[in-house]
């Protein structure tokens, strides 16, 4: 739910229709990319969390989400958005945070309202 909320926030900030995110093309794709064992994005995330380096992973397989994550974060910064999950993925990919720290940092954030009207 956090990922879909952040995705929707980015979409709306860029002038998009939130229905795009809430429909099959948004939620459906997000579910597949996150949970399917055949998803290269999911495989990459699993390997990163086990401590493998992104460059080693990318030498073995194409992972579309790596470039997408970089672009999404650039747009989020341009729009002045605080997207904690997007930011953490960006930090993991750039190796500025260790996988062992990622969950701890996200869970240590102050609590706030998790929903935004779209």
Characterise this structure:
GO terms for molecular function: glycerol-3-phosphate dehydrogenase (NAD+) activity. The protein has 118 residues and is an all-alpha fold. The chain has one domain (2-107): N-(1-d-carboxylethyl)-l-norvaline Dehydrogenase, domain 2. The chain has helices at residues 2-13, 18-22, 24-35, 40-49, 54-60, 64-78, 84-93, 99-107. α6 (64-78) crosses α7. The relative contact order is 0.15. The mean pLDDT is 92.
Map the helices and strands.
Elements: H1 2-13, H2 18-22, H3 24-35, H4 40-49, H5 54-60, H6 64-78, H7 84-93, H8 99-107
Descriptive terms for the model:
118 residues; mainly alpha; N-(1-d-carboxylethyl)-l-norvaline Dehydrogenase, domain 2; 8 helices
Radius of gyration, taken over Cα atoms and rounded to an integer in Å = 14 Å
Which homologous superfamily in CATH is the superfamily? N-(1-d-carboxylethyl)-l-norvaline Dehydrogenase, domain 2
Percent in strands: under 5%
Secondary-structure element pattern, one letter each: HHHHHHHH
Q: What does the main sheet amount to?
A: none
Instruction: Kindly report the average pLDDT value.
Output: 92
Individual helix count = 8
How far apart the termini lie comes to 14 Å
CATH-defined architecture? Orthogonal Bundle
Provide a compact summary of the structure.
With 118 residues, the chain is an all-alpha fold. It has a single domain, classed as Orthogonal Bundle (N-(1-d-carboxylethyl)-l-norvaline Dehydrogenase, domain 2). The chain has eight helices and no strands.
């Amino acid at each position: 739910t956090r990922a879909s909320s952040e995705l929707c926030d980015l979409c709306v900030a860029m002038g998009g229709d939130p229905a795009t995110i809430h429909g099959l093309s948004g939620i459906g794709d997000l579910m597949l990319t996150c949970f399917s064992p055949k998803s290269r994005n999911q495989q990459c995330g699993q390997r990163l969390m086990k401590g493998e380096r992104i460059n080693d992973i990318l030498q073995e397989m194409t992972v579309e989400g790596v470039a997408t994550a970089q672009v999404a974060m650039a747009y989020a910064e341009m729009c002045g958005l605080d997207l904690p999950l997007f930011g953490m993925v960006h930090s993991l990919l750039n190796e500025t945070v260790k996988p062992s720290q990622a969950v701890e940092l996200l869970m240590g954030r102050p609590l706030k309202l998790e929903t935004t009207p779209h």
